[in-house]
Design a protein that fits this description.
four-stranded mixed sheet, 2 helices, about 200 residues, about 10% helix
Length: about 200
C-alpha cells in the first residue's frame, strides 16, 4: 500500500500496533490507545468490466500512468450509495463514453498488493469510444487475440474468453511477473457432484 492510516478518525490520537483478542484469537492491528477504535484495513471494492462490442471483441485500454504496451480492463472505485451494477455502468460510461445495454457478474477476486477486492462484470455496450483523460489508448481484441494475465482482472478476462469457447492464453502483465496463472484460481475447479459449484479454498 502507498499510504497507511496514522491517526484515529474519532479522537485524532496517533494509532499504535496493538494486540487484542478477536473471534479467531489474538490479532495485531492499528488501534487507538485512547478510545480503542480499531483500523480494520478492510479491502476497497473496485469494479471491473469486460467490455464487449457488437462484433464480439473485448476492449482493452492503457492507463496514462502505465508504460507502453500495458493494457487492461476498465476499472474504477464504487461510490457511496450505488450498487455494483450501477457503478460498473457509470465507470464504463465515464471512461469510454460507451453505454452498457446488458451485463452479467463474472466473479470477484482479491488484489492484495492494493488491498482491493475486484468485482468483475461482462458488459455489452453500444456507442463510439471516447476515452477519458485517465486513458491514453485502447484496442479491441477477439477472444483468440486476447491475452490474460495471472492476477485479478486477468482472471475475469479469462472467464470471458472461456465463455466464447476459446482456451485462455496467459502472459505476464508487467516485467518480472510470472506468466503462469495461480493453480488455485485457474483453471476453475468445479465440484464433481454439481458443476455449478466450485471447490472452496483451503483455510
Amino acid at each position: 500500500m502507498s499510504h497507511e492510516m496514522r491517526f484515529c478518525p474519532c479522537c485524532a490520537t496517533p494509532l499504535q500496533w496493538m494486540v487484542q483478542q478477536e473471534d479467531d484469537g489474538a490479532k495485531e492491528r492499528l488501534r487507538c490507545p485512547a478510545c480503542l477504535w480499531t483500523h480494520w484495513g478492510n479491502p476497497t471494492p473496485v469494479l471491473a468490466a469486460v467490455v464487449e462490442n457488437t462484433r464480439g471483441e473485448v476492449l482493452l485500454a492503457r492507463n496514462a500512468l502505465w508504460q507502453e504496451g500495458m493494457f487492461g480492463l476498465i476499472t474504477g472505485f464504487m461510490e457511496a450509495g450505488e450498487s455494483p451494477e450501477a457503478g460498473v455502468c457509470r465507470e464504463v460510461l465515464e471512461e469510454t463514453n460507451l453505454r452498457v445495454k446488458a451485463l452479467r457478474l463474472l466473479g470477484a477476486w482479491e488484489f492484495l498488493r492494493m488491498n482491493q477486492v475486484l468485482i468483475a462484470y461482462h458488459v455489452l455496450v453500444e456507442g463510439e469510444v471516447k476515452l477519458s483523460p485517465e486513458l491514453v489508448e485502447f484496442q479491441w481484441k477477439s477472444p483468440q487475440q486476447a491475452r490474460c494475465w495471472p492476477s485479478g482482472t486477468g482472471y475475469a478476462l479469462a472467464h470471458w474468453v472461456k465463455s466464447k469457447g476459446v482456451e485462455p492464453q496467459f502472459g505476464a502483465f508487467r516485467p518480472q511477473q510470472s506468466p503462469e496463472p495461480d493453480p488455485a484460481k485457474w483453471p476453475v475447479q468445479a465440484w464433481p457432484e454439481d458443476e455449478r459449484f466450485v471447490l472452496p479454498p483451503l483455510l
